[in-house]
Amino acid sequence: EKKSTEQQRMKVSVVLVGLYVSAANAFQTAAPMGHGRVVKPWTTTTKRTILFATETKTTEKEITEEVKVVPEKASSGAVTAAVSQSGPVAEMMDEGIYNFNKVLIDTVYNIICFLYPVTGGPRDFARFYVLETVARVPYFAYLSVMHLRETFGERKDSNSERMRTHYAEADNELHHLLIMESLGGNSNIVDRTVAQTMAFGYYWYVIAIYAFNQPAAYHLSELIEDHAYNTYNKFLTEYEDKLKGMPVPPIAKKYYVEDNPFLFDLFCTVKDKDEQGNFSQRRPQLETLYDVFVNIRDDEREHWKTLCNLVQYDDMQGVENKMVVSTQPKPTPPADSLP
Fold it and tell me: What secondary structure does DSSP assign to 282-335, as a single string?
């Protein structure tokens, strides 16, 4: 009897497994896109402006590309954007989060522009002091969350490299801040109060966002770094002659020329390659204050490239230098393509 019972159990198990496999195959064949309806992919054309920066000039190049979006999981609303068939797939930002982040950062930036217009005078350094005080906050906010998770047992190999890079980024922004202080940017108590109050509030905001949605938090900083690059680039263009007549602050020479370049190289995660295929290294040459601001501007672009890769690929080296583009909002599918 025991033998007969065991044989019956085995038969029932085999039948159940067979039914499960058959049902799964039937479901995949009948409804590959969900709800029994095949959803057609759609194509959207987007234009992106890419800035190619060198130490002497910035060139804008506008490219038009087709992005094919296939709703792989119609029931959950998740989509994947295939930007390139040969390269990695870039994730797009949820349109609601994208728009909210952009409105938030643009509003803060416009307030700073209103309070601190660029005039070519000493008050410009106060503006940059405020910007750098706020811009460095996200990097140690990321580190705070990652350290806390590590304390509670989270162990990921990728986190170690990412934490070191975020520390190097925070150190780089700190030296930008020290340069602005050496130029008198923090000499007014009102400017210090404005900058530190904004930084304190923004720190806790980034902590909350990063704890629940890392891409959204990285996207905030991507927008900030893009604004910072454009601000410095415009300043260099408009006041080149004046800056070339001013000396290099000692703190800038110490950081860019004299110090060990380990941390400086560490935050440059998206580098150009030389003819042998090896990653090149930036070695700043400083002769005037103009050179200092060129390097600060280029640093901001390095941060921007790393953040773009983190948002779109969850990888600091997601794509190579010349392929990095700003994060795009996820396109809304046409009504006739929805299930």
Answer: -----SSHHHHHHHHHHHHHHHHHHHHHHHHHSSTTSS-GGG-----BPPPPPG
Task: List C-alpha distances in Å: 246 to 57, 132, 275.
Answer: 20, 21, 36
1-8 long-range Cβ contacts below 8 angstroms, 24+ apart: none
Q: Which residues contact 77 (CB under 8 A, 6 or more apart)?
A: none
According to DSSP, the residues that pair with 68 across neighbouring strands are: 43, 82
d(CA 211, CA 146): 9
User: Three-state secondary structure along 239-265?
Assistant: CHHHHHCCCCCHHHHHHHHHCCCHHHH
- Rounded Cα distance, 141 and 132, in Å: 15
Instruction: Decide: 212 and 97 in contact? Cβ < 8 Å.
Output: no
DSSP 3-state assignment of 148?
helix
3-state DSSP: the chain helix, strand, coil percent, rounded to 5? 60, 10, 30
| pLDDT, tens only, 148-195 | 998 888 877 778 888 888 998 999 999 999 999 999 999 999 999 999
